[in-house]
Each structure stands twice: as C-alpha cells, then as structure tokens.
C-alpha cells in the first residue's frame, strides 16, 4: 500500500482502511496498521484515540447508492437488487464485511444506524409518500440488507446460481411494493374485520 508520501495521519487512515477491509476488524491490530503506515503505534493512538476511532475514520459506511435512490422511484427495487448482485466482488462488499465484523462495538453500531437513516431511510421516506413512509423505507432497508448478507457475507450458493433476472424481478418487486404501493394495508391481525378499514384494532 502506497503511504510513503502522505502526511502521517493520512497514511495511517489509508493503511487502516485497507487492512480492515482485507483482514476484518478483529484481526487488524494497531501495531499492524502502524507498520503498514511506517510509523510508531503510539502515533496511531495519538491521532485517532483508539482502534475503534480509527475504524470509524478509515472505513466509509455510506456506500454509493445516491444514483439509485434519486433515480426513478418506480425502478428503485430492481436497481437495488442489481447493485447487490453486481457488487459481490467489489470494494464496497469488502467494506461491508469489515463493518459486520465490527458491528458489536457500540460506537460503530450507532454509526451504522445513523448511516442507514441518512443514506437510505431518510431520502426514501421523503419520496415515497402515503401512509407510514419512514416505516416502509426502513422495511425496504431491512430487505436490502438481507440480500446483501445472503450474497456478500454468506455467499448463498443457490442465489449465486439462480437466474439473475428472476432474482431481480422477484426480490426487486418485493422491495418495490413497500415503496410505491398505493394503499398500504392498515395494521391489524389477519382476519380482523377492522383490518384495512382504518377502524380500531381490538
């Protein structure tokens, strides 16, 4: 990794980002980061305070979904699925796996939650309208994350071998229904005579 000509802080951040993505959070040590950056381990702590602080500075949690989420709303579901299917070997998949290995740390978990809202839920909720816009956006985010886990983390062999456009259509349309359904169902138990009427739920 080319860090020789960078200021120490930038060299540390670049080295850390590459090591976290390659080896995961737990297997990456401050000493290894310092060696890759060509500095003393104490300098890493001086600049970033802790390994966790360095992780948050070095690994982006936002991804690159702006083009999809600001595009035609009627195609967002299928485009999100294509993003996942095309990205299993991409740098962003490595970043996602690194984030998962660190998500048990409270500060990192909170950053992930904030990022999901800022990058995905917030922009979608503003666009979809109708009843329960934020809830529907969060459920869409959960569906999206589930497919990412299956394809990028678990590497589900059935999904890997499935007909691509079948996955796009089936899963994409499931996400899309949350975003553009004209009349979301009213909460209620199955068979409740008030379900769908807006009446009280007993």
Reconstruct the topology from this structure:
Elements: H1 8-23, H2 30-37, H3 41-48, H4 51-58, H5 66-69, H6 76-86, H7 91-102, H8 106-128, H9 133-153, H10 157-161, H11 164-180
Helix pairs in contact: 1-2, 1-4, 1-7, 2-3, 3-4, 6-9, 6-11, 8-9, 9-11
Region (Disordered): 182-202
Protein name: TetR family transcriptional regulator
InterPro entries: Homeodomain-like_sf, HTH-type_TetR-like_transc_reg, HTH_TetR, Tet_transcr_reg_TetR-rel_C_sf, TetR_C_16
What report would you give on this structure?
The chain has 202 residues and is mainly alpha-helical. The chain has two domains: 8-58, Arc Repressor Mutant, subunit A; 66-180, Orthogonal Bundle (Tetracycline Repressor, domain 2), CATH 1.10.357. Helices cover 66% and strands 0% of the residues. The chain contains eleven helices and no strands. It has helices spanning 8-23, 30-37, 41-48, 51-58, 66-69, 76-86, 91-102, 106-128, 133-153, 157-161, 164-180. The longest helix has 23 residues, at 106-128. The radius of gyration is 21 Å and the shape is elongated. Residues 195-202 have low confidence and may be disordered.
């Amino acid at each position: 990794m080319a860090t020789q000509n960078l200021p120490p802080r930038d060299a540390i951040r670049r080295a850390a980002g590459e090591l976290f993505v390659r080896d995961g959070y737990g297997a990456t040590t401050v000493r290894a980061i310092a060696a890759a950056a060509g500095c003393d381990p104490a300098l890493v702590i001086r600049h970033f305070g802790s390994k966790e602080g360095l992780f948050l500075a070095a690994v982006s949690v936002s991804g690159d979904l702006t083009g999809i989420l600001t595009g035609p709303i009627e195609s967002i579901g299928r485009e999100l699925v294509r993003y996942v299917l095309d990205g299993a070997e991409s740098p962003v998949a490595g970043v996602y796996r690194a984030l998962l290995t660190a998500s048990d740390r409270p500060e990192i978990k909170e950053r992930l939650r904030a990022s999901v809202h800022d990058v995905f839920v917030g922009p979608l909720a503003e666009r979809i309208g109708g009843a329960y816009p934020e809830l529907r956006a969060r459920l869409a985010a959960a569906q999206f994350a589930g497919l990412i886990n299956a394809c990028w983390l678990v590497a589900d062999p059935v999904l890997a071998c499935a007909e691509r456009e079948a996955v796009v259509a089936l899963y994409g349309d499931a996400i899309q229904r949350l975003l553009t359904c004209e009349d979301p169902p009213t909460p209620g138990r199955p068979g409740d005579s008030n379900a769908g009427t807006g009446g009280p739920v007993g």
